[in-house]
């Protein structure tokens, strides 16, 4: 059903899904590179979970689900992926200045590609630059973008320190970064069917939410004992056997 919504949102079926095109779900648009995005998010979640004690049930269950989904996504490779990996490794070794900005990103064909490193592995996550379209987007009533006054925060000034400096790569010819080959519509459908979490954009949203939850649970140290111990029998009613008995009881 979800794949039908995406197909109905497009003018005609195509081998590749158009980045930024409607998916058929309100406010959700086709992701430009879902495979590397999911690989990075799942790897980050697993790295976060390793900070939990091995005895933590939350860690054990979340690791199992995340590893399962990670194996599904990584098993589906786009055409020409092996050749792209070799070329990308060579480019990064010979020209590490490709991702020379303070944010570690590079622009290409109306999008941004950001370099991340997790567990010694390099991930290039792509994001689409969304342009305002006055024929499609509604006016929010604002006359213009509000100009902030006063001292900028550290986050706002993160990239300003290098604007007047000479950065690596300025003395050499322009290096073009080629993003990871795209998955076909059928390959994306294969991942969606195996994970069973809706469209792949919904799977990405779920993965991002799970990563945030893992961070919150880590801060709360959920594996520790409660400060106030529950009284005897407090949770007895919610045990599976009691719930099963209660559902078979005659209704009054």
From TrEMBL:
Keyword entries, A-Z: Electron transport, Membrane, Mitochondrion, Mitochondrion inner membrane, Respiratory chain, Transport
UniProt source species: Oidiodendron maius (strain Zn)
Pfam families according to UniProt: ETC_C1_NDUFA5
Record's compositionally biased regions (Basic and acidic residues): 149-159
Topology of this chain in the membrane: Peripheral membrane protein
Biased amino acid composition, Acidic residues: 138-148
One CC-aspect GO term: mitochondrial inner membrane
Family of this protein: Belongs to the complex I NDUFA5 subunit family.
GO biological process: respiratory electron transport chain
Protein name in UniProt: NADH-ubiquinone oxidoreductase 29.9 kDa subunit
Protein's cellular compartments: Mitochondrion inner membrane
């Amino acid at each position: 059903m979800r794949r039908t919504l995406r197909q109905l949102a497009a003018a005609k079926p195509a081998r590749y899904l158009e980045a930024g095109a409607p998916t058929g779900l309100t406010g959700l648009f086709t992701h430009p590179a879902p495979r590397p995005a999911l690989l990075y998010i799942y790897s980050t979640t697993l790295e976060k979970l390793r900070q939990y004690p091995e005895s933590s049930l939350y860690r054990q269950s979340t690791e199992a689900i995340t590893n399962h989904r990670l194996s599904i996504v990584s098993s589906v490779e786009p055409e020409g992926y092996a050749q792209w990996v070799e070329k990308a490794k060579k480019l990064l070794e010979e020209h590490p200045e490709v991702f020379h900005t303070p944010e570690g990103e590079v622009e290409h064909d109306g999008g941004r590609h950001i370099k991340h490193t997790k567990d010694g592995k390099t991930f290039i996550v792509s994001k689409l630059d969304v342009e305002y379209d006055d024929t499609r987007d509604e006016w929010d009533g604002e006359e213009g973008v509000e100009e902030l006054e006063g001292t900028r925060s550290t986050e706002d000034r993160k990239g300003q320190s290098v604007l007047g400096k000479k950065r690596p790569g300025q003395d050499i010819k322009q290096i073009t970064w080629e993003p990871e080959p795209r998955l076909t519509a059928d390959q994306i459908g294969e991942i969606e069917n195996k994970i069973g979490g809706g469209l792949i954009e919904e799977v990405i949203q779920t993965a991002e939410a799970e990563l945030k939850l893992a961070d919150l649970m880590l801060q709360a140290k959920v594996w520790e004992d409660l400060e106030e111990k529950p009284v005897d029998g407090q949770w007895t009613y919610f045990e599976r056997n009691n719930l099963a008995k209660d559902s078979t009881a005659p209704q009054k």
